[in-house]
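note to self: dont lose this again. the chain is below, predicted strucutre after it. 302 aa total, dont forget to put it in the shared folder this time
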Amino acid sequence: MKFSLLLLFIGGLLIKGCVQDSKNDSIYQKRTEAGHTAFRLTEKTLLPFTDIIAYTRIFREYVRQTTPDGRDSIETMYLSNIRIAPHSQALGTAEQYHMTVSGEEAGHNYEITFTNPSSSSWDVLAVASLNEQTTRYHLSIRDIDSKTWTVTQSNCERQAPVQVSATRQSASVTRLGHKSDAAKTTFNVKNQLFTINWAYDTVYPSFKISGSGILQCPNDPHCRVAYQIEQPIVVKSFPGFKTIHQAGSDFNFVNGFTAWSSGTLRLKTYDTVNHAFDEYTVTLLEQDLNIAMNHVEEKWTR
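---
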């Protein structure tokens, strides 16, 4: 059955048991539970991209300042847990800056390098560490000084993958080796063109993002999740998200520097062995998710 197909992909790593994990009152297994798992996997995998994009915007504001007072004002507003320094380069090579982000509640730590920041097209390389798992990111961004950015290339690859043995007991029961969940649920990603539209009425970076891409499991080449953003995702940044997260249930979905507040995605989960797939439409609301599959639509609490 198709529900078992996705659990075969992910090994039940992101949900343990039934619906109680989603903060719903119901204890029965919802028909769109596999779609919920697919969304949580996709969100978890792509949030570092929106983090890096928001940090890039902060760095743009910093590097475009022409006076020490201007840079001091950016440091005061944004850089409580960020350190920026020029990177020493050999004569004749492109200018680089290095940003170190540390101390986030959820364990996110970033090392980000910006190449040729005086131009309007940047190469951004990042290493993200989360729960003892390290992933490398690359983004090529055009029109960096405009309200709309075009990310022509973006991808990520897990560094030094942990080998995880898997024994497939049946089509409906899959158990993976007893490594960390972070290692087993980290996917490599290759995105298509991203379009970023910035909001200018907020203090901290906020933007809409549209695009598509594919998540590929390095431990199981037959496991793929393809996503298409059908209605742009609204991304908000929360530099003080520790306080926000503790403020109440209204912000329970915030567990990092950026969070997705609204938008619509179409997800396809592929089994390349059996040549089968499941398809879901996920609509994000501030507090809930609506997940639709085969004329069934169910609400989940974020």
